[in-house]
Design a protein that fits this description.
The complex is a heterodimer of chains A (about 270) and B (about 375). Chain A is an alpha/beta fold and about 270 residues long. Chain A is built from eight helices and ten strands. Chain A has two domains: about 1-85 and about 240-270, ATPase, nucleotide binding domain (Nucleotidyltransferase, domain 5, 2-Layer Sandwich); about 90-235, Nucleotidyltransferase, domain 5 (2-Layer Sandwich). In chain A, about 45% of the residues lie in helices and about 20% in strands. The radius of gyration of chain A is 20 Å and the shape is elongated. Chain B has about 375 residues and is α/β, with parallel strands linked by helices. Chain B has a domain at about 20-160: Rossmann fold. In chain B, strands 2-1-3-4 form a four-stranded parallel β-sheet, with helices on both faces. In chain B, strand 3, helix 5 (about 105-110) and strand 4 form a beta-alpha-beta unit. The chains are: A alpha/beta (about 270), B alpha/beta (about 375). The interface between A and B is medium-sized, with 18 and 16 residues. Chain A: Its cofactor is [4Fe-4S] cluster.
Chain lengths: ~270, ~375
Amino acid sequence: MFTMGIDIGSSSSKVVILEDGVKIIAGEVIQIGTGSTGPKRVLDEALSKAGLKLQDMAKIIATGYGRSSVEEAHKQISEISCQAKGVFFLVPSVKLIIDIGGQDVKAIKLDSKGGVKQFFMNDKCAAGTGRFLDVMSRVLEVNLDEMAEYDARATEPATVSSTCTVFAESEVISQLSNGVAKENIIAGVHQSVASKACGLAYRCGVEEDIVMCGGVAKDLGVVRAISKELKKPVIVAPNPQITAALGAAIFAFEEVMAAVIFAFEEVRGANK
Amino acid sequence: MSRIETIISELSSISNNPRKAMEDYKKETGKGSVGVMPYYAPEEIIHAAGFLPVGIWGGQKSISKARAYLPPFACSIMQSVMEMQLEGVYDDLEAVLFPVPCDTLKCLSQKWKGTSPVIVFTHPQNRKLEAANKFLAEEYRLVREKLEKILSVQISDEALNNSIEIYNENRQVMREFTDIAANYPNIIDPIKRHAIIKARFFMEKSKHTALVKELNSALKSLPVEAFTGKKVVLTGIMAEPNEVLDILKDNGFGVVADDLAQESRLFRNDVPSGTDPLYRLAKWWQEFDGCSLATDAKKSRGPMLMDMVKASKADAVVVCMMKFCDPEEFDYPIYYRQFEEAGIKSLFIEIDLETTSFEQTKTRVQSFSEML
């Protein structure tokens, strides 16, 4: 049986196709999100990779910022519940998830069964999000996927505001014009992102194992900065951008199974 | 339309259109309205003068002119009040009563840009001393004097004691309403509940009392229906704009009690009995607890909220955090820890009257619903 999870974020679209609730047979990402062609394209790519059709899916659940606009989905579940489900599936020892996406930062505390105990999200501000890193990458003329390497070479991290992306951008421009090394500025940018995320983590209560997911988890400079701030190791979820889509696909599988069991019990009850 | 629907519709219409309520009052009585800024002004003095006290709680609008006078970190109630002052929205008020229990109000009270006269007074924060009652009664004496002068009326002790009784009856009826409404969340959804309470700000209180009394008895005559959603207690300054309440409703939440400064905090205590009306009003402030704007050395808000959860059999608390309200922000870590220790689930949502996009609130509320 195949189920599908679709996670439409603000800046990327992700799809996971799951076989029998355990085997990921497609996990695709396209780096454009809600309101774009991304959702349709990523859906087609995932189906093509799995060699399946939409009709082969027993259930489809959508999550993420654009979850309400996915016509193919049978149901919507919030990305907080889906992240918890997906990360717990991959790392069952997880107690705290730090999820940094395109425009949201979330800290999610889990119980021992993977249920959400508490969560906190950033306020309506791009500081500390993937968008913040996008802006900095453009100003610094350093690709996002190179930022961790620059950070690793930093000798004296610069101070970059964590309050506002616009202020931080002008701070970075001013530091560049003062000749501060890009390596040190990038380390400062990563610390700025970490301070936002860790503020939410502290509110939740920091408990190991800590797992990071979302697109920003691919930037190991941010992961290192968070680990340093929390003084604890941080595990990066395998393929961290698809964890919410994976959670949605697991939810879809569980709901199909629950319906099957319910129907079975009904028939058994009727035959008694 | 049933009588219940008619009353709800009437109160909702008043709460959505305060200007019309003011005009109707003027037509009926020949007297105007006096604005009442948050928080905890002695409206009874205005009522005793025969004028209509009208609550000023800002509104959902984008801010531009107010930026010249307020820093961006002033709460959105004050931002929108300032914006509307500059647009002349409050200029037909006879006067504005202006308490200053927070720093933003203190500063705003000194830069009122409307044309109506403003009467500023101070709530003492060493509230539990007898001297606080004497101080506040003296402040209220000055408020009365200034109102008498501006409105060209005499406000007798007798009239004031009578108004206090009218307000106390309204408080009692409102407490009954919130208790009864908790049994009928299918009928009294979060938006209707808010509108019924908010209409208090724009109606002569005995008229509001009469309608809510009738609503209470009509509700009580109905069988209690099962509610399949989750029951919550709201805490904070206010739960506006209505989109926030819509999101709660859409996700199956019913509000069974609240601790909002705009709602139940105003009527959870009666003004105590006595003969000197100004002293009675002052004593209300001393007896009032569990509000971030009233210094409370015992920090009783958390325990009060937990009692509320227990009494209303609520599933959780929704913290409606007014953005940039530092008194509320300072209270939060204290009661949040108490909730955690007691195993009470809570959701933190941000309240900002200027906001037009509610996606984050939707995600938070949906996630919370899935979590419970």
